Amino acid sequence: MSQSISPQPIAQTDARPVNKFGTPGPAARARFIELGVAALERLAIRDAEAAEQSQERAA
Where is the composition biased (Polar residues) (predicted)? Predict the structure, then answer.
């Protein structure tokens, strides 16, 4: 039994790349940005406190 393999047509898709989980919605993007801002604020506070402590130790 001989069968020939014919190429299957490829479905047309969006040109935008999409990961396997899909793209996040606007609410998820907004929350992600909020979390990033909060993390950067905490880092800035921690860096300022560390700089203050190092100046106190140097004095």
Answer: 1-11
0.70 surpassed by pTM:
no
pLDDT in tens, 13-47: 655 555 567 777 788 889 999 999 999 999 999 99
Domain around 30:
25-59
Measure the N-to-C terminal CA separation of the chain; round to a whole number of Å. 90
Is residue 45 assigned to a domain? yes
Q: Which of 45, 27, 2 is nearest to 53 (CA)?
A: 45
Domain membership of residue 52 (yes or no) is: yes
The total of structural domains in the chain comes to 1
